[in-house]
Specification:
Layout lengths: L2 H8 L21 E12 L2 E11 L2 H4 L8 E11 L2
Antiparallel strand pairs: 1-2, 2-3
């Protein structure tokens, strides 16, 4: 992730800073992501997908004040019908 993205989403500007939340300027970083998709076709033209994933935040994100945990987990369930 480039520094503009990290600074926009995880940084704290001087204007936003408070006594309990100091200003923080994010720098570029690398997140590591791992995922798995399971698909099942219960009938022709129908499919169900289950997505499981985890992302470990880069050092400049996890060192910021807005992120408590350095790993994010995600689960998604999708249904697909082919016309």
């Amino acid at each position: 992730m480039d520094s503009k993205y990290v600074d926009y989403y995880y940084g704290v500007t001087q204007h936003e800073a408070r006594s309990w939340c100091a200003a923080y300027e994010g720098d570029s970083t690398v997140n590591v992501e791992l995922g798995m998709r399971i698909d099942w076709q219960p009938a022709p033209r129908h499919a169900v997908f289950i997505d499981l994933g985890a992302a470990r935040m880069g050092s400049t994100i996890k060192n910021g004040l807005l992120v408590d945990e350095d790993i994010q987990y995600g689960v998604g369930v999708d249904y697909f019908y082919r016309f």
